[in-house]
Structure formats: C-alpha cells, structure tokens
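Example 356, ligand adenosine-5'-triphosphate.
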Amino acid sequence: MEAIRVEKVSKVFDGAVVALNGLNLEIKAGELFFLLGASGCGKTTLLRCIAGLETPSDGRIFFGELDVTKLAPHKREAAMVFQSYALWPHLSVSRNISFGLEERKIPKAEIKERVAEALKMVRLEGYGERSIDQLSGGQQQRVSLARALVVKPRCLLLDEPLSNLDAQLRIEMRREIRSIVKDNGLTAIYVTHDQEEALAMADRMAVLAKGRIAQIGTPEEIYRQPAYSHVASFIGETNLADGDVMEMHEDFCFVKINGTALVGRVTDKNWRGQPGEKATVSIRPEVWRLHKESGENEIAGKVVERSYLGQRIEYFVDTVIGRQQVVEMNPYVLHSVGDHVTLHARHGDIVIFPKS
Ligand SMILES: Nc1ncnc2c1ncn2[C@@H]1O[C@H](COP(=O)(O)OP(=O)(O)OP(=O)(O)O)[C@@H](O)[C@H]1O
C-alpha cells in the first residue's frame, strides 16, 4: 500500500498537444481514487504516466517517498487493468495469471501458491484449469484483475475496466472490485466515463479539465458542492441559468435572473461577487419540489413534458429562468402536461458560481 504523489506533471505530445498541464495530485495509501472528465481531458495520459507507459515532459511522480518518474514500468510495480482484458483465450486461467511471474523467473512452487492466492482474491477458486473462452465476461475481467494482483503491485491502475460488460454485471462488479481493493489494502486509481460508477465506488475523485484538476473531493462533495458549473453539469444532471449578483453574504448569495431573485450557496470560497457581476445558478432536478416547503426560491411554471419512470417521475417545466428538469421520487400528486405548478427549492440546495 503506497501513497501516490503527482507534482506539476505536464505531458505535451508532438510538441503541440498539451495533454497534462502542470497537474498536482495526492492520492492516499489505500484509497480507491477516480479520475473523471470530458473526453480528451488527460485521464488516460495521467494513468499511463503513473504506470510508466508515458514519460512526463515535466514534473515528478512519487510512490511513497520513491521518485518513480524515470523508472521503467516493470520496476514501478504498478499493475494495470484495461477495458479489453488482453487475456490469451487458448491458455488456462492459471497460465494467464502466472505468465508475469514466469517472466520474472519466480520459482515454480511459489508461482503455484501465488496463483492460488490471486484466484482466491477474485473469488475464482477452482477455475484455474478452465480455458478463458469457457468463462463469462465478468469472470474474464476477474481473471485480468487476478493477473494484475498476482505480482503484488504497489498500486492498481484501472482504465475503464467494466465498460465491456453488460449493465447488470457492471453493477455487480462495482462491489466486487471495491471489496477486492479494500480487502487487500490496495491503492487504486480508476478511470471511467461512467459517473455513476465513480459516485458509487470512489473514496475520492478528481474531475479533470484541460490537463488539470478542476475539483477534487468525496463523491458527496463533488455532487453537492461543485465549485464550477462544468463540474456540476459533468457529474449528474443539473439546471444551469445565468443571472446577476444582487447581494453577496458569507457563504450564500442572491442572484436575479430575468427579474426573479434566487438564493443559493456559494461553494467557491474565494469568490466575492460584486452586485451586477454575472453568476451561474445550478439546481439539480431532484432539488426542485412541487410542494411548498420553506417559502424560499418559488418560481411559477407550466409542465411541458412528463415521463413516468416507475420509481420516479420526471417533468420539464417552463419558467422565467428557463426550462427546468424536475425529478420527484414517489410523487404525492401527479401533474400533467399543461398544468401550472410552482417550483420550490431550499437555498442550501441551490449552488451559485461566478459565471465562467
Ligand atoms: N500518443 C498520443 N499522441 C498524440 N496525442 C495524444 C496521444 N495520446 C493522447 N493524446 C492527446 O492528448 C489529449 C488527452 O488524451 P487522453 O487520452 O489522456 O484523454 P482522456 O481524458 O483519457 O480521453 P478519453 O476520455 O476520450 O479516453 C487528447 O487531446 C489526445 O488527443
């Protein structure tokens, strides 16, 4: 178990494409850490720099106190698990797992012991002699995890490991991978496009933008206290609207949008918005209520679309601040298209940022 520290790492491809731009990051020992962000923001490049498959153009990477920036990949003892399992279909499960150890000239008896241990870790005891093509997709992904774990890595790097699996299996494997990482005290970095996967599994996560960290925090912090509008809209769904600052208080603020005043929390502690300054308001669909609760943030609207989704109902409501997506769980009253409604939201649930 090792902490990982990335210090001012940049990576420029072909002298022109800036994939990483002076990025700093500290991952704690034993943490399951997620990297998220729009396509091209640098997630895979960062993971590959940590693995040693790319060399940073600038900056340093540490595993614990060891500077690994110039260390060859196999000397870093970082194991990587890919989206494509990269298994040999004609070889047995055991051979697939033991291959890396055979290459390292580990004695046969020890290999046998370590393969058995790795199979146990991924709950595939008794599958050693099967060939890969006799396994399900989820079992194959567990073999690729076992192959990574058998070398006793200092850290585990996962690049979209579940994206080839069907939806149900993906959800089951989330728990499996998390418990494998936690039970074995591994430090793991996980890249995904699936924000729900990240919210469900991560100890902490970072949202990257343009080769830097935009925000870092626990899933709850990132979802409930996004510091920028692009983080709010990237993780989960949200209604964004632009307006002008009316009044700024210690950690909340009033904003006027098309003549309507809204009050919400300010998550960027460094922002002291001046009256008249442009601001963006973010309201999650589940934050809007269709019944009166606190009297704060009331807006009249008209239902223009409704989808009944079993456990929840989703509306689109036209209001003076724009079309709002509204989600209600277990609704008390069902509204129809054309109904006039009033939306309500508590000020603690609305987030306000400086307009970017
Ligand atoms: N080998 C390479 N040569 C040139 N440019 C590259 C190379 N690898 C990545 N890039 C560029 O670097 C930037 C970051 O790419 P990277 O693959 O790290 O992004 P990503 O966040 O993982 O994207 P995705 O979510 O689409 O996988 C992109 O602009 C990409 O085109």
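Summary: The mean pLDDT is 91.
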